[in-house]
Design brief:
The complex is a heterodimer of chains A (332) and B (430). With 332 residues, chain A is an all-alpha fold. Chain A has one domain (2-321): ABC transporter involved in vitamin B12 uptake, BtuC, CATH 1.10.3470. Chain A is built from twelve helices and two strands; from the N terminus they run H-H-H-H-E-E-H-H-H-H-H-H-H-H. A two-stranded antiparallel sheet of chain A has the order 1-2. In chain A, a hairpin with an 8-residue loop joins strand 1 and strand 2 (155-158). In chain A, helix 9 runs parallel beside helix 12 (309-321). The radius of gyration of chain A is 21 Å and the shape is globular. With 430 residues, chain B is mainly α. In chain B, helix 3 (71-86) crosses helix 14 (296-322) and helix 15 crosses helix 16 (351-387). The longest helix of chain B has 37 residues, at 351-387. Chain B is globular. The chains are: A mainly alpha (332), B mainly alpha (430). The interface between A and B is large, with 51 and 47 residues.
Chain lengths: 332, 430
Amino acid sequence: MNELIYFFNYVVVAGSVTGSIYAMGAIGVTLIYSILRFAHFAHADMMTLGAFLVLLLTLLFPHAGEPLGLPTAVVMLPIAMVLTSLAAVGIDRVFYQPLRNHGVKPIVLVIASLGVTLMLQGLIRLFSGTGAQSLYVDARKEIFRLEVPGVTRPIILTEPQIILFVVTIASVIALHLFLTRSRLGKAMRAMSDNPDLARASGINTQLIVTLTWVIAGSLATLAGTLLSLDVAFKPDLSFFLLLPIFAAAIVGGVGHPFGAVAGGFLVGFAETLAVFNWSVLLRPLRDSLPSWIELPNNLALVGTEYKIVVPFFILIAVLIWRPTGLFKGKVI
Amino acid sequence: MTTPQHSSSRPAVPTRELVLFGGLIVVVLGVFFAMGGAYATRMLVEAACYAILALGLTIQWGYAGQFNAGIMGFVALGGFSATFFSIPVNHDFWSSDLPGRLGGVLLAIIAAIALVVAVSRLDRLGVPKLARTLLTILVGLIAYLVVISWLREVTGDIESQVDFVGGLGLPVWVGWIVGGLLAGGVGYLIGHICLGLRADYLVIATLGIAEIIKAFLKNSDWLTRGTATISPLPWPVPSPGEVGFITARALYLSVTVVMIAVIFFLLHRAYHAPWGRMIRAIRDNEVSAAAMGKSINRRRQEIFVFGCVLMGIGGAALTSFTGIFDAQGYLPLNHTFLVLVMVILGGPGNNLGTLFGAVLVYVIWIMSGPMALALAHFVAELGGMWFDWQPGNMDSQALQARVFVIGLLILMVLRFAPRGLIPEKVAHHD
């Protein structure tokens, strides 16, 4: 049983954490793709920017969370979401919109987003330095140990992980309701299906574009902050997120928000399973195995240093066998 | 282009090019006198190596409209090849039983691949497709685990017994050529998968492969000594120890300049040949080109591989010149985005413009480090005088400002000079 608890702690919990982060990032990428038709490479840096703004606010008001019983960073989230959304809309107005109005090819917008990536990275590192910083300023991360009867090893969950699961579920449900029930959400879907027809039927496309950036910016802030809460804030956070969130968006079918959620969890679990050392699970069977099978100590599929290979191979496999993604995305 | 140019009535004196290149020569001479000959020749050699990389990107992005965001990976691959072929042979390794064991593992990898391919073809013998797929995955997983555990064992022994495999002790140019071929091979695989799809997918895939190549080179201590780095690397010309810094660097510079001249000549011929016209036709109007019966994916594949070969060669020349192989020294900013700025600022699709952009941007880049530091110190001093402000060490942060400037430069060029300083000249025939 100890091994099963170990598996639960190191695969189920860890996979759900990375999966939730990737899912929230991938939703943003996929929404921008379906409305603006280009791969927004600065998205991972928007996640870093959101987390960085939360860090700044937390440093300014380190005790704001105490009356509510939540970490200060979580209380600061809504403000940072608004600020990041403003930044996202501003970046769009200043950099992307003029190019769009020029009627450039989507690939030029991709290059522009690489430029935005560098600008955001430079700005964040200019102010934060290059080291890692904890988002728990003047506070301690709470760790819950759930004892399972009859087993020595407890199930371990931390406070940020629980907050992350709650926030992910809430935001996915809210997004679903928004896209299917509200007028604006329906307009957004219409615009992703056929922009010309949407404009002809009187939908304010400018408003929809702004709305897309607001949703993407808010989700990016949520994902970036909750990831930084779970580990620590690092200015090069985006570097580890870019490939997985794009893999997740493409696996789920580009332009398909719920595909992105599924893709996020698929990529997150695939990463965790690939670096998990399977020989731990096989250890109890060791005595009953025939003598000619020798169990190696390290049965992980890839070492942790090659974690980045996993999303890449998922991406390549999907591009070879199902370029439209698992859920038949709209854009190929 | 507002005034259509006729091939017969071309202006006799290309003023724009002359002015820009004249200005560039003045800037380079300024660096020469301000920083000394050794510094300036080093800068010029590095700029020449970057020019080869930029020519590689200009044929991918300028000629064919494919964007490669993983130049760093191809540079690292070329650099590794130059290192592996040129450094001295490690006799401890070759006199032990390790080469045989390593060879055995390589054979096992080939056998495992053959086995998996054979199992994946079982449906031709009447096995149901679903069973075949499941069986292939199962066999592949087991074969992978077995082979990888053997490989880990052998590489662990290599690291503990003989440090690393060493080199081959061959002339440097062999490594450069093989580096180009290796980069071309990786480019072929990536292009094969991504070129038929949306252009964005190529960007993601090249970005990913570059990071994977870097991770592999960084973590394979048995092959590259990982973070311990390999140095010194031999040069194709007499080393500074024999003939002095300036002479050695000038000789190296002449080697790279000859390479650029050859590449430039070949590209010029290709651009004006029917092949070049076909490439541009595909870039500008894919549908018409397809209707004319041109094989679009084949041509795209060719050009992507050519570009990658140039990047591999340029990366090899750059790494040999640096004299140290450090996988962690390959950075997206220095080896991907800097090249991107060179190409889009100079003029994508125009070889002369690309050369100009490469040298100009490299000079600015190399001088911006000291300048950013000086500016940071100046600001800190002013702050200290006026507001009693005591900043910590701002040096690393001042260098980060360059990242911001490169990003801003990309956006400004795309917005205000989308065709670069020396735009591509498309000949019109009436």
